[in-house]
Amino acid sequence: MLTACSDDGTTVYPDVRQLTQAVDKAVAGAKTAGFTTEIAVGTVQTKGQGQLRLDATTALVTTMDFYGDPLEIRLVDGQLYVKVPESAQEGDKPWVRIPRDGTDPFSQATGGSIDQLAQQNDPARTLEQIRTAGTIVSSGAVTLNDTPTTHYVLNIELAKLHENLPAGLSTEAVTQTEGEATGFPLELWLNAEQLPVQVTFDLTPILLAAGAPTNSAAKITTAYKDWKAPATVEAPPAEQVGDLPPPP
After folding, report:
1. In Å, how far from its chain's centre is CA 185?
2. Residue-by-residue pLDDT tens, the chain, 248 positions
3. In terms of Cα–Cα distance, which of 162, 171, 168 is closest to 212?
4. Would you kindly state where each structural domain of the chain is located, as residue ranges?
5. Does the domain at residues 11-235 carry the CATH identifier 2.50.20.20?
6. I want to staple 10 with a disulfide (CB 3.0 to 4.6 A). Which of 25, 141, 160, 211 is the partner?
């Protein structure tokens, strides 16, 4: 199938393969971006902002609200670092390395893996989720925050994601809702260069399948800006980094 153009010249891709190939190419060429994130579950909202750099792997830094304290997370060269809130710091090492298995106290406190939380802002990860589990439901030209975009609505099939789940979801939680929630909507807005402007994961169907009240909602929204602008994403100084203490 061939790509189509709307009346305003916006490119519209008819299938997931062509869509992800175009965005992959655009993102790889841009290499850097800034972003803001909002996670809303019921009446609880968490906001964050950061920068990312796309080389062989994605490196990113993000600062989020954590029970009233700023929580800074860095993902560099496959290693995850968290800056401990000042009220919980011990000694002269404000940073700790975080295991990427989601069993550490920080991950448990946020209700999911810190690794998931960091990678949620990675457009390459979103594209992989779309590529392996997505189906385009609708598409068309819309204006988002004064920016002309192509807006895609996709359905993401849970069973095809395997362990590549959005932040806050575990394989155990998905198993518990099996048969009740088979997927969830994902919305993607692209600019004229096929770069993401905004991505929204609507996890409400999974929340409802888990027994939440019918008026409950759960959404993760990441807005991208400043593509190609300089981005400083480095690991913390080694002398400031400690390891998490072993569990009791």
Report:
1. 14
2. 345 555 555 689 999 999 999 999 999 999 999 999 998 888 888 899 999 999 888 899 999 876 677 889 999 988 889 887 776 666 788 998 887 665 655 555 544 467 777 778 999 999 999 999 999 999 999 999 999 999 999 999 998 998 888 877 777 777 777 667 889 999 999 999 999 999 999 999 988 887 888 888 899 999 999 999 999 899 999 999 987 665 55
3. 168
4. 11-235
5. yes
6. 141
Contact criterion met (CB below 8 Å) for 148 and 141:
yes
Q: Which two tokens stand for residue 134?
A: 């997505």
Of 70, 67, 72, the closest CA to residue 83 belongs to 72
Return the structure tokens found at 130: 């779309």
Residue 12 CA from chain centroid, whole number: 23
Q: Which of 137, 150, 13 is nearest to 2 (CA)?
A: 13
What values do phi and psi take at 169, rounded to 5? -105, 135
Q: Record the pTM.
A: 0.87
Alpha-carbon radius of gyration of the chain: 19
Angstrom CA distances, 188 to 19, 102, 141, stand at 11, 27, 12
